[in-house]
Amino acid sequence: MKPYAIGIDVGGTKIATGVLDRSLNLVSVHVSKEHAGQLPAQVVDTIERGYRAVLEQARISADEVAGVGLSFAGHTNGRRGVVLTSSNMPEWDQVPLRDIVSKRLNQHVLLDNDTNLAVVAEHRYGAGRGADDVVYVTFSTGVGMGIIVGGKLYQGYTGTAGEIGHTVVETDGRRCSCGKRGCLMAYACGIALRNRAWERIQSGEETELRDLCWDDPQLINGELICEVASRGDPVAQDLIISTGRYLGIALSTIVQVLNPELIVIGGGLTNIGSMLLDPCIESLRQNIHPVLWGAGRIVPGRFQANVSVIGGAAAVFSEIESGEGAAQIQYVAPVPLDWTAAARAALPLTDEDRSALERVEGTVFDVQRYSLDDGPGLRTAVFFKGCPLRCAWCSNPESQQVRPELLLFAASCLACGACVETCAAEGRTLAGDHIEWDRRVCTRCGECVRTCPAQATTWSGRRQPAGEILSEVLRDAAFYEDGGGLTLTGGEPLLQPAFAEALLRLAKAKHLGTAIETTGNAPWEIFESLYPYLDLWLYDLKHMDSHAHHNWTGLGNELILSNLRKLAALGAPICVRMPLIPGVNVSDDNLRRTAEFVAQLGPAVRSLDLLPYHKLARAKYEALGCGGKWWDAELMPDDQVQSAAKLMRSYNLTVRIVGDRSGKETP
Amino acid sequence: MIETETENGTMTETTAPTGCTTRVQRLRERVLDTTPSVCAERGLLVTEAYEMYAPDPPVLRRAKALAHILDHMTIRIDEGELIVGNQASAPRAAPLFPECAIDFLVDEIDEFPHRRADVYTVSPEVKQAILGKIGPYWRGKTLYDRAKAMRPSEVNQAEQIGAVAGRGNISSGDGHIIMNIPKVLRLGMTGIIEEVQTASAALSSYDAIEFGKRAFLEGSAIALRAVIRFAERYAAEAERQAAGASDAGRRSELLRIAEVCRRVPVEPARTFHEAVQCAWFVHLVSQIESNGHSFSLGRFDQYTWPFYRADLEAGRTTPQQAQELLELLWLKLFSIIKIRSWSHTRYGIGYPTYQNVTIGGQTNRGEDATNDISFMVLETIRETRLPQPNVSARIHTGTPDHFLMECARTIRLGMGMPAIKNDEIIVPALLEKGVRSEDAFDYAIVGCIEAAVPGKWGYRNTGMSFLNLLKVLELTLNNGTDPATGIQLLPGRGDLTAFDSIEAIYDAYREQLRFYTRLSIEMDTVADLCLETMVPDAFCSALVDDCIARGKTIKEGGAVYDIISGLQSGAANVADSFMALKTRVFDEKALTASQVLESMAADFQNPGGELVRQRLLHAPKYGNDLAEVDAFAARVLNEYLAEASRYHHTRYGRGPIGGGYAGSTSNISANVPLGASVGATPDGRRAGEPINEGVSPVHGCDTGGPTKVLCSAARLPTIKSIAQLLNLRLSPGSLASEEGLRRLVALLKGFRNLKLWHVQFNTVSTEALLDAQRHPEKYRDLVVRVAGYSALFVTLDKATQDDIIRRTSHDLS
Fold it and tell me: Is 3.40.50.150 the CATH number for A4-119+306-323?
């Protein structure tokens, strides 16, 4: 199978060309802005130049390309491969662009409009994975829609289905560019927003927009209106709220006609955030038949930038895979969620929301930048203090108690006696080359931490507001470009759900990738509340046998397994993580049962990660004064780790071996 | 063995790439097997020529000497070579430049084979030539002798106590330059000689100043013609060998070599082979002409790519053939070697010649410039695995991910190459210094890390004298007196106990810093004046714009741009020291000033000294993204920059744009000797320990991972620099999978987004380094990065090896 596909987006002002690999990573992209106002023949020349340039840049040959997906912003007939009309480029009239380009590039070419390709991308590879009936709606310069019904792109009889922008929302309303009156597009898209704002300025209404647009309507855009509205300008607020209402009416039509499982939303206007989407959702609720309220979800799209380029390539792969009879996407029964809860994840926060979230406090014992094994890319891991389990092999013993604890590291201790003098409880004595510490009399006053010259005595755990933690996380913002971001770990983040939610929502508002590492031992409601804000779940699975699980961790596994099943059914992206502990859970039987269970969870599971036991924690047990509890097991030999992985791969799972740095290393 | 992750997730093992042709492998083995030696040939020839041409003005006398050397030196075409041209009579043999310095050659001659590092063998004949002929002629007449005589005694004392150091340029000459190689490819020597003739014809025959220009232009023409004859000697030698060759394949190769050498550099190049040979001849002659180092090749991928593309289109070559030529060029560059006094060698261990090759980046219109050759250069690094030349990859926001991945794949080998340079800061930094936009986008790297416009910039954009920022702090805390020698050049404001706040110490530090900055510039001025009058280089000047048009050598103000910088070392130690004093003595009052001062004097060996050291050591340190301590580093560097910007160098007002100083933290391996002269310091550092390198944190003080190091460095005044050095070490096992490489790419993108100048990575594991110390014979080809350049690890002295091992290792799994 050829490893690459090319997506080309012919837009009103630019032509973007990209090479994508099978995971839809953008390998290389080329943008040309030369074609404005050009004739079809010239546009074809530009397409060819972009195609050659992008191959050259990516250093791949035409033989490695499976095909070209051509996205055209206008009316198209995908089946015939013809551009019908384009409002931006009037010369385009019934142009068989697919065949022209195919001949020119000597490649297999698909043609469709931008939203149809976007819905394919989101359905096959993005936010719509796992669902059968998906609608993609874009709110940007215009309003568009792509439809997947029964897992297939629905194009309609003449290939122009999905023209939601031209449904009438006001009879005898404003004139639309199509010639009709009262179309959605005349009210609720980037162009309409500008026109309506300009009219209100012209009519002499009192608004800050007048001063900021310098008498040039071209300077008015969604961003500007949003900014002015947030300062309380009534005209700007009214424009956004009414736009949201009209969009809600359109969404109600979509839900009532198609009853989709998922509506994926994208496009520049969604960046306006809750000011637009709150009235939109409210209008949806008012205009929808009650039986349909809550019968599906609204989620933000995965592919925001370059969505049409990615869509083109996705369509190529999608066509090939269905043609080659690749495994059909498994249908996962959706767990109904409130529309608004899921949609809120996509929203920028209001100032009040943000400052409220920033004040939420929690107890953490470390914020570790440059974490490598806790999700994709470079990440900052926030270690929550407190855990419901007591795994015998725990590599972070200081994470178990919620309250802050004092540690004394013998290796750093100079036996200088400074703490002996300062300890009011007389809990410390100098015993030759080391300090003895009677923890029973300790009042946890922390004076020893202050006086220790070598930082051998330290606090583990501090109460901190979420805002403070997030600013530490954002210090590494420069490094999160390639999919990195924030990972909540611990301890058990779900033990502090409000704090976890605050961190995740603050992170999402900054467009960071989010992940959580969890034992899974928490009430399901907490999963539901955090679900919208998480891009990845690292879900620990320690033993399949509940009795053994209880023996080794202090709790049975029923709740853990049931939560994992539900989470997978929701389609949440999951990496199942299994520590390999010799003598505990590495028997063939348990490996097989684990693999079977994980395999049944379906496509939500991205991988099964194996974490071989390591001995890095010993010093921390001793520092906590519980050295006797340290689990001194044998390390698992590499070949046994490999054969465990091999066995589990035989269940058709992606199995990865994660290095021995899964836990926080001893300082 | 490198572990790779295959598509289905299983781990397999593959051997390291051995894509080199047998020809390359054989030549590589031979050059790696050679212990460097000393060759007296150039020394004898230059002595002869100086005697013959004594009446000529210096520039003409030297041009004639170069011609004499090129006409008479031994030339060799070794079995299997396709790119030809040798620097000395044997491979990896250092030629002698007695005109620069002679005393160390005579005094250290018996030491060369027994040094702790950078060993050279000396044959009895060579020893005889040096002691019998070369030494007696040059004693007292060299560049070094003149400069020493001219230096104010204050400057010498400052060097003696270790506050400044600057022996390099007065004992080895300038270097640090990129000549206009693309111009030679385009015009050939013939075209450039025509330019010289046109300029000569326009000169007034009586005007005193214009008259002075004659000598330079005449010298240029002599040197350029000598280069043509030099190439012709190789053509003749190739034809001679071809006539006697029994193997038909080799015979046709030799005839091709002859054809190429008859064509270039005399005429414009037509093919990739000719372009590579031409670039090598130009580079080689500059290395024979003068004794400096850091002669760099500029944007090699940009000027050779059109030839490669044309060859491919015409079917004249295959990618494999071109790749082989590149690898052969790399072996040639590795064969270049020079010899320095031990005192100078200590500042740059590992036979460094700092020959930099720049790839990637942007065109002068700001478009991505990565091309086939950029990738082939990376492949060449992976195949040849040599510490020279240094390769710098320029990256910017439009650099294709694919190129970043290939850079990461190359970095994984652990040779510290390519070093990554960031257009997003370097281009603005050059614009800020008055460089024209199209030139700023066309920058290339000289030596280790410093940026210059190829073919248009004067010598030594960095590499003037070292300023030891930490020594200056030690002086400040001891009333301006050096504790080791008792020398006091500028009285201070009392010792540490005399200060009542950290700001009072800072004010006293500023006074000392300004004073020693001025001394370092005095040192530079002496060096520049001596270099200008004693060792002008006609050939090199002729190939730097606009020397010919102005009729001036580079040192007389011939270059378009001439901005230089000294090397400021130890900023992290200084910041950590200020922070430790501020927190421990003034804020917390956990220590008293006299406790700290006593412990420093006793190197923490006094009673209670270790506790004092621990408290100081555990104060917040630079490199952990802590604003307060990082700000001290930024303040100190800004202070230096403010002071240095008040001064001009000897070319100011004589033609070039610039004429003054910028900042540079490039410090090669000087952090070891510079640290040796500083006693214990308030950051908890013991006496004599190395100071930090460039803007890297003090070893062992960066405990929060590389992203924090990069965030700390981002707080420094990088835009005002002309070079900035940052080293990170990563465990190589962690880079084994594609996922690991992608994470390295994410790290590189963060580096780029933070607008840092330069970063390079050592990825050799600590275990491997320790093993290499014990069993050097097994690690003959282990290359590691030493502060801005790569060197063979086993050739380093133990102190430098230990220093590398101590660099904090960051996992990147």
Answer: no
